[in-house]
Amino acid sequence: MNKKCELIYEGKAKKVFSHNDENKVMIEFKDDATAFNAMKKAKFEGKGKLNCLISAKIFEHLMNKNIPTHFIELKNENTMIAQKIKVIPLEIVLRNTAYGSLCKQTAIKSGTVLAKPLIDIYLKNDELNDPLITKDRIELMNILSSKDLDLIIELTLKINIILKSFFKNIKLQLVDFKLEFGYDLKDNILLADEISPDNCRLWDLNQKNDTIVSLDKDRFRNDLGGLIEAYSEINRRIKNFI
Ligand code: TMP
What we know:
The protein is α+β, with helices and mostly antiparallel strands. It has 2 domains: 7-83, Phosphorylase Kinase, domain 1 (2-Layer Sandwich); 86-241, D-amino Acid Aminotransferase, Chain A, domain 1 (2-Layer Sandwich). The chain has 6 helices and 14 strands. The chain has helices at 47-64, 101-105, 135-140, 146-169, 218-221, 227-241, and strands at 7-10, 14-18, 24-29, 32-35, 40-43, 71-76, 79-83, 86-87, 90-97, 113-123, 172-179, 181-183, 189-191, 200-204. The strands form 4 sheets. A 5-stranded antiparallel beta sheet has the order 1-2-3-7-6. It has a 4-stranded antiparallel beta sheet with strand order 10-9-11-14, covered by helices on one side. Strand 4 and strand 5 form a beta hairpin. The longest helix has 24 residues, at 146-169. The radius of gyration is 17 Å and the shape is globular. 34% of the residues are buried. Bound molecules: thymidine-5'-phosphate. Thymidine-5'-phosphate is lined by residues 93, 100-102, 130, 176-178, 199-201.
Protein backbone atom coordinates (compact mmCIF):
# COMPACT_ATOMS: atom_id res chain seq x y z
CA MET A 1 0.00 0.00 0.00
CA ASN A 2 1.33 3.48 -0.81
CA LYS A 3 0.97 5.58 2.33
CA LYS A 4 3.50 8.13 1.07
CA CYS A 5 1.43 11.23 1.47
CA GLU A 6 -0.27 10.62 4.76
CA LEU A 7 0.28 13.60 7.03
CA ILE A 8 1.37 12.25 10.43
CA TYR A 9 2.13 15.50 12.20
CA GLU A 10 2.09 19.21 11.50
CA GLY A 11 4.27 21.50 13.59
CA LYS A 12 4.84 25.26 13.43
CA ALA A 13 7.55 25.07 10.78
CA LYS A 14 7.37 21.54 9.37
CA LYS A 15 4.99 18.81 8.22
CA VAL A 16 5.85 15.15 8.71
CA PHE A 17 4.52 12.60 6.19
CA SER A 18 4.68 8.82 6.22
CA HIS A 19 6.99 7.04 3.77
CA ASN A 20 6.59 3.74 1.91
CA ASP A 21 9.32 2.40 4.15
CA GLU A 22 7.86 2.39 7.64
CA ASN A 23 11.29 3.11 9.16
CA LYS A 24 11.36 6.49 7.40
CA VAL A 25 9.40 9.76 7.24
CA MET A 26 9.34 12.71 4.88
CA ILE A 27 9.74 16.13 6.46
CA GLU A 28 8.47 19.13 4.51
CA PHE A 29 9.80 22.52 5.60
CA LYS A 30 7.13 25.25 5.61
CA ASP A 31 7.49 28.95 4.86
CA ASP A 32 5.75 29.82 8.16
CA ALA A 33 7.67 31.56 10.91
CA THR A 34 6.55 31.84 14.51
CA ALA A 35 8.09 33.46 17.56
CA PHE A 36 7.25 33.77 21.25
CA ASN A 37 5.33 30.47 21.20
CA ALA A 38 3.44 31.46 18.08
CA MET A 39 2.20 34.77 19.50
CA LYS A 40 3.85 36.26 16.44
CA LYS A 41 3.35 34.65 13.02
CA ALA A 42 4.35 35.37 9.43
CA LYS A 43 5.12 33.64 6.16
CA PHE A 44 8.36 34.13 4.23
CA GLU A 45 8.34 32.73 0.73
CA GLY A 46 11.39 30.52 0.26
CA LYS A 47 12.20 30.06 3.98
CA GLY A 48 11.19 26.39 3.95
CA LYS A 49 13.48 25.60 1.04
CA LEU A 50 16.43 27.50 2.57
CA ASN A 51 16.07 25.82 5.97
CA CYS A 52 15.74 22.40 4.37
CA LEU A 53 18.90 22.88 2.26
CA ILE A 54 20.89 24.41 5.14
CA SER A 55 19.81 21.65 7.56
CA ALA A 56 20.68 18.91 5.07
CA LYS A 57 24.21 20.27 4.62
CA ILE A 58 24.72 20.63 8.37
CA PHE A 59 23.38 17.15 9.13
CA GLU A 60 25.72 15.71 6.48
CA HIS A 61 28.64 17.56 8.03
CA LEU A 62 27.75 16.29 11.52
CA MET A 63 27.33 12.71 10.28
CA ASN A 64 30.78 12.90 8.67
CA LYS A 65 32.02 13.71 12.19
CA ASN A 66 30.22 10.66 13.64
CA ILE A 67 27.22 12.44 15.14
CA PRO A 68 24.13 10.23 14.73
CA THR A 69 21.28 12.16 13.10
CA HIS A 70 17.88 11.30 11.64
CA PHE A 71 18.81 12.73 8.20
CA ILE A 72 18.88 10.28 5.28
CA GLU A 73 18.67 12.35 2.09
CA LEU A 74 16.92 15.23 0.39
CA LYS A 75 13.79 14.30 -1.55
CA ASN A 76 13.54 17.76 -3.08
CA GLU A 77 14.51 21.29 -2.07
CA ASN A 78 11.71 21.51 0.51
CA THR A 79 11.60 17.95 1.78
CA MET A 80 14.03 15.61 3.47
CA ILE A 81 13.76 11.90 4.09
CA ALA A 82 14.65 11.06 7.66
CA GLN A 83 14.56 8.10 10.00
CA LYS A 84 11.32 7.73 11.89
CA ILE A 85 11.95 8.57 15.54
CA LYS A 86 10.12 8.87 18.82
CA VAL A 87 10.67 12.51 19.76
CA ILE A 88 12.12 13.20 23.22
CA PRO A 89 10.01 16.14 24.45
CA LEU A 90 12.96 18.35 25.43
CA GLU A 91 14.54 21.37 23.75
CA ILE A 92 18.26 21.44 24.46
CA VAL A 93 19.64 24.96 24.14
CA LEU A 94 23.39 25.53 24.16
CA ARG A 95 24.69 29.08 24.61
CA ASN A 96 28.21 30.28 23.79
CA THR A 97 27.35 33.97 24.10
CA ALA A 98 24.71 35.51 26.36
CA TYR A 99 21.68 36.76 24.44
CA GLY A 100 17.91 36.40 24.25
CA SER A 101 16.08 34.82 27.17
CA LEU A 102 19.28 34.29 29.21
CA CYS A 103 19.75 38.07 29.42
CA LYS A 104 16.07 38.70 30.11
CA GLN A 105 16.13 36.23 33.02
CA THR A 106 19.53 37.02 34.54
CA ALA A 107 21.69 40.10 35.01
CA ILE A 108 24.19 38.88 32.42
CA LYS A 109 24.90 41.52 29.81
CA SER A 110 23.91 40.81 26.21
CA GLY A 111 26.86 39.75 24.08
CA THR A 112 28.98 38.43 26.98
CA VAL A 113 31.08 35.51 25.74
CA LEU A 114 30.51 32.71 28.27
CA ALA A 115 33.57 31.12 29.93
CA LYS A 116 32.14 27.69 29.03
CA PRO A 117 29.06 26.62 27.05
CA LEU A 118 25.83 26.83 29.04
CA ILE A 119 23.17 24.18 28.47
CA ASP A 120 19.57 25.12 29.25
CA ILE A 121 16.92 22.44 28.90
CA TYR A 122 13.27 23.26 28.20
CA LEU A 123 10.22 21.01 28.26
CA LYS A 124 8.79 20.81 24.73
CA ASN A 125 5.21 21.63 25.56
CA ASP A 126 3.49 24.56 23.83
CA GLU A 127 0.56 24.53 26.29
CA LEU A 128 3.01 25.08 29.16
CA ASN A 129 5.00 27.58 27.07
CA ASP A 130 8.13 25.36 26.94
CA PRO A 131 9.30 25.98 30.54
CA LEU A 132 12.93 25.72 31.65
CA ILE A 133 13.22 22.32 33.35
CA THR A 134 15.65 20.70 35.79
CA LYS A 135 17.42 17.34 35.64
CA ASP A 136 15.44 16.16 38.66
CA ARG A 137 12.13 17.13 37.06
CA ILE A 138 13.11 15.29 33.86
CA GLU A 139 13.65 12.14 35.98
CA LEU A 140 10.50 12.78 37.99
CA MET A 141 8.45 12.98 34.80
CA ASN A 142 10.12 9.83 33.40
CA ILE A 143 11.03 11.66 30.22
CA LEU A 144 14.31 9.80 29.95
CA SER A 145 16.89 8.11 32.15
CA SER A 146 19.72 10.12 33.68
CA LYS A 147 22.13 8.02 31.55
CA ASP A 148 20.37 9.09 28.33
CA LEU A 149 20.19 12.69 29.51
CA ASP A 150 23.94 12.62 30.09
CA LEU A 151 24.40 11.17 26.61
CA ILE A 152 22.31 13.95 25.05
CA ILE A 153 24.30 16.60 26.93
CA GLU A 154 27.57 15.02 25.81
CA LEU A 155 26.34 14.93 22.18
CA THR A 156 25.23 18.57 22.41
CA LEU A 157 28.67 19.66 23.63
CA LYS A 158 30.33 17.71 20.79
CA ILE A 159 27.93 19.20 18.24
CA ASN A 160 28.78 22.67 19.56
CA ILE A 161 32.50 22.13 18.96
CA ILE A 162 31.82 20.95 15.40
CA LEU A 163 29.30 23.67 14.57
CA LYS A 164 31.30 26.52 16.12
CA SER A 165 34.24 25.70 13.90
CA PHE A 166 32.01 25.07 10.86
CA PHE A 167 30.34 28.47 11.19
CA LYS A 168 33.60 30.26 12.02
CA ASN A 169 34.95 29.04 8.68
CA ILE A 170 32.13 30.86 6.95
CA LYS A 171 32.56 33.96 9.09
CA LEU A 172 29.64 33.40 11.44
CA GLN A 173 29.61 33.47 15.24
CA LEU A 174 27.50 30.66 16.71
CA VAL A 175 25.86 32.50 19.61
CA ASP A 176 23.42 29.76 20.66
CA PHE A 177 21.23 27.02 19.25
CA LYS A 178 18.42 24.63 20.09
CA LEU A 179 18.52 20.89 19.46
CA GLU A 180 15.96 18.12 19.62
CA PHE A 181 16.68 14.41 19.90
CA GLY A 182 14.70 11.21 19.47
CA TYR A 183 14.92 7.43 19.63
CA ASP A 184 15.06 5.41 16.41
CA LEU A 185 13.27 2.05 16.13
CA LYS A 186 16.29 0.32 17.71
CA ASP A 187 16.28 2.82 20.63
CA ASN A 188 19.42 4.64 19.51
CA ILE A 189 19.47 8.35 20.30
CA LEU A 190 19.60 10.50 17.16
CA LEU A 191 19.82 14.23 16.61
CA ALA A 192 16.50 15.19 15.01
CA ASP A 193 14.46 18.25 13.95
CA GLU A 194 16.51 20.83 12.00
CA ILE A 195 19.66 22.93 12.29
CA SER A 196 18.97 26.19 10.55
CA PRO A 197 18.82 29.94 11.19
CA ASP A 198 15.39 29.25 12.72
CA ASN A 199 16.99 27.55 15.71
CA CYS A 200 20.54 28.95 15.76
CA ARG A 201 21.68 32.51 16.46
CA LEU A 202 24.33 33.40 13.91
CA TRP A 203 26.13 36.74 13.89
CA ASP A 204 28.05 38.00 10.88
CA LEU A 205 31.80 38.13 11.56
CA ASN A 206 32.38 40.21 8.41
CA GLN A 207 31.56 43.43 10.26
CA LYS A 208 34.32 46.00 10.69
CA ASN A 209 33.28 47.11 14.19
CA ASP A 210 31.44 45.28 16.96
CA THR A 211 27.99 45.86 15.47
CA ILE A 212 25.78 42.82 15.86
CA VAL A 213 24.31 41.73 12.54
CA SER A 214 21.97 38.77 13.06
CA LEU A 215 21.62 36.40 10.12
CA ASP A 216 18.90 34.28 11.78
CA LYS A 217 15.31 34.29 13.03
CA ASP A 218 16.04 37.28 15.27
CA ARG A 219 15.44 39.28 12.06
CA PHE A 220 11.79 38.28 12.47
CA ARG A 221 11.65 38.09 16.29
CA ASN A 222 13.05 41.65 16.57
CA ASP A 223 11.41 43.11 13.43
CA LEU A 224 14.75 43.74 11.73
CA GLY A 225 13.54 42.80 8.23
CA GLY A 226 15.61 41.01 5.57
CA LEU A 227 15.02 37.46 6.82
CA ILE A 228 15.15 35.78 3.41
CA GLU A 229 18.25 37.77 2.46
CA ALA A 230 19.96 36.62 5.70
CA TYR A 231 19.02 32.93 5.25
CA SER A 232 20.08 33.08 1.58
CA GLU A 233 23.44 34.50 2.63
CA ILE A 234 23.96 31.59 5.08
CA ASN A 235 22.99 29.09 2.38
CA ARG A 236 25.36 30.77 -0.08
CA ARG A 237 28.30 30.72 2.37
CA ILE A 238 27.68 27.03 3.20
CA LYS A 239 27.48 26.07 -0.49
CA ASN A 240 30.72 27.90 -1.24
CA PHE A 241 32.48 26.26 1.72
CA ILE A 242 31.43 22.64 1.27
P1 TMP B 1 16.27 32.01 23.72
O1 TMP B 1 17.33 33.01 23.95
O2 TMP B 1 14.96 32.61 23.27
O3 TMP B 1 16.07 31.08 24.88
O4 TMP B 1 16.75 31.10 22.50
C1 TMP B 1 17.94 30.36 22.56
C2 TMP B 1 18.16 29.64 21.23
O5 TMP B 1 17.19 28.66 21.01
C3 TMP B 1 18.10 30.57 20.00
O6 TMP B 1 19.08 30.13 19.08
C4 TMP B 1 16.74 30.32 19.44
C5 TMP B 1 16.45 28.89 19.81
N1 TMP B 1 15.04 28.64 20.09
C6 TMP B 1 14.34 27.77 19.30
O7 TMP B 1 14.87 27.20 18.34
N2 TMP B 1 13.03 27.54 19.61
C7 TMP B 1 12.40 28.13 20.63
O8 TMP B 1 11.22 27.87 20.84
C8 TMP B 1 13.15 29.04 21.45
C9 TMP B 1 12.49 29.72 22.61
C10 TMP B 1 14.46 29.26 21.14
